[in-house]
């Protein structure tokens, strides 16, 4: 029987939240414990004690980002429980395109790409898990007859590819108007 992870202490939770805010502002690429600890009012030694290692802290930060992203995507994909893939994609894109979500989405893009090139350690499995997360959100919005078919799986995979591609382009260019038009064009094809 697998053991449950111990409940984090109040201090560990507090420092994780502070480290998460730091990561949203500064990214994870060159994360160094000393500047992070100084910025969040701790010490590298305390962070190592609470998280076990730098990789343990990175894993906690990635899980924190993933859980926030999934909760937000789930809410964005289901306001009023839209039925159908096209309405879900439209709601998700509106959420993705919102400027206030860019820090989280930049952090997601950084973690996703690192997971592709560093398939072990703290980054292990992050990209695959987020693909499954996003596909799950889209599947939940499909009617059962579509969700459970090969065509339904292909349609949500295509929708995810469009959303991800548009998101990466948006993060690179900030050209929200052009990308929204492209997503809307794809939505029209999804409705056929």
Total beta strands:
0
Average residue-wise pLDDT:
87
Instruction: Please state the structural category.
Output: mainly alpha
Count of helical stretches: 10
Order of helices and strands: HHHHHHHHHH
Low-confidence stretches: none
Dominant shape: elongated
In what range is the share of β-strand residues?
under 5%
Largest pleated sheet = none
Percent of residues in helices: over 70%
The span between the termini is: 48 Å
In angstroms, what is the radius of gyration? 18 Å
Walk me through this protein's architecture.
It comes from Streptomyces nodosus. Residues 9-69 form the HTH tetR-type domain. Pfam families: TetR_N. The protein is mainly α. The protein has a domain at 62-190. Helix content is 76%, strand content 0%. The chain is built from 10 helices and no strands. It has helices at 10-26, 33-40, 44-51, 54-77, 85-97, 102-117, 126-141, 144-147, 150-173, 176-190. α5 runs parallel beside α9 (150-173). The radius of gyration is 18 Å and the shape is elongated.
């Amino acid at each position: 029987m697998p053991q449950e992870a111990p409940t984090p202490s109040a201090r560990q939770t507090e420092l994780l939240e502070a480290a998460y805010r730091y990561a949203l502002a500064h990214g994870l690429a060159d994360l160094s414990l000393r500047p992070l600890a100084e910025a969040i009012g701790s010490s590298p030694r305390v962070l190592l004690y609470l998280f076990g290692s730098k990789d343990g802290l990175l894993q906690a930060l990635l899980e924190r980002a993933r859980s926030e992203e999934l909760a937000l995507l789930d809410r964005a994909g289901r306001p009023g429980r839209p039925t159908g893939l096209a309405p879900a994609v439209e709601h998700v894109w509106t959420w993705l395109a919102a400027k206030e979500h860019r820090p989280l989405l930049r952090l997601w893009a950084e973690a996703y790409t690192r997971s592709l090139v560093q398939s072990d350690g703290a980054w292990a499995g992050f990209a695959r898990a987020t693909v499954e997360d996003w596909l799950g959100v889209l599947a939940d919005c499909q009617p059962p007859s579509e969700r459970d078919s090969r065509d339904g799986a292909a349609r949500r995979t295509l929708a995810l590819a469009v959303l991800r591609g548009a998101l990466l382009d948006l993060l690179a260019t900030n050209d929200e108007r052009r990308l929204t038009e492209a997503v809307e064009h794809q939505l029209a094809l999804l409705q056929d």
